[in-house]
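**User:** Once you have settled down, spend some time on the protein underneath, comparing sequence with structure tokens, and judge whether sequence predicts the tokens.
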Amino acid sequence: MNGTIAIDARMLGASGIGTYIENLLGEFKKLDHSLYFKLIGDAEKLNRLVGSSSRYEIIPADFPIYSIAEQFKLPKLADGCDILHSPHHNVPILYKGKLLVTFQDALHWDHPEYIPNWRGKIYLKFISKKIRRADWIITSSQFTANRACEIFDFPSDKITVTPYGVNTHHFSRRSPESVRAILEKYGIHWGNYLFYIGNIKPHKNIENLIKAYELARAKGVRANLVLAGKISGLRAKVDIEKFSSAPGVKYVGEIPYSELPYFYSGARALVFVSLYEGFGLPPLEAMACGCPVLCSNTTSLPEVVGDSAILVNPENVEEIAKKIKIISLDLKIRKKIVAKSKERIKLFKWEKTAEKTLEIYKKLLEE
């Protein structure tokens, strides 16, 4: 079936949503279909990703995310297309055509305290009205699908769950020698640290993680705690300097995407006790690198890790500390978790995500 799909790809390069866009477009190139795409975003990044493929037209756009400008410019750039696919909830209110929304998470609806100001709250109200009138919604987890039904009173038969995948070519176990060469630059020793990766935002629960780590350290844990992630540019963030001054805690800032597999491969475990996730890529990436995972038992995370991780209540500091001690010191449990993880990651493939998305495009075109 023929048709033209406009995709708002301005967040290409960002964590989470950027990874989703990158892998979706990459898989579309490989799959057999007759659809044509107009990609709205950074021309240089998009050219590097899709090259000279005749299926893609790149439309440069430099207006910011969550801006008034996007509300006026996006509808014009998508004009004439059969479907506009918005990979995030900042949908263009004035767009009149068919709208497909990938609803990444309901964080701002469930936790309005994380919205930075009154303008953001007003913006969210207008966006909510438009999402209610979307033609279809995609989510990456059943948890988020359920929240979309509840928040927007959206029909469940027009929501499709398409879980994220994991790129096992990039995220794979690396040799101890290559890991040591990367970690040496940061003053970190292979096998002697617990690892957190993610934006340093309040809902990531860094404060409780560090409190729990201090308790675990008092109970005999000697592995350090290495924190990595973005701070600059975040409207809601944690005072990382205050928390990373604790004994054994080291903040290394943002690390290059190319080095992430080495950090996972060298860690004793990933500790990811986030309070809220629409999906949660780090546990999946860690699993693919043979790194044991300790993560929260809330929101979407149990869907992602299944029985291939140690689950913990993210609001219970003592419980987190207890589980940190177990995953740090019990080699038998770590090996058991890693063995289960090898099977678990086979369920998450970007090819499947892209195939299901193409099916939705075709369904909307038929309607």
Observations:
- The first helix runs from residue 17 to 30.
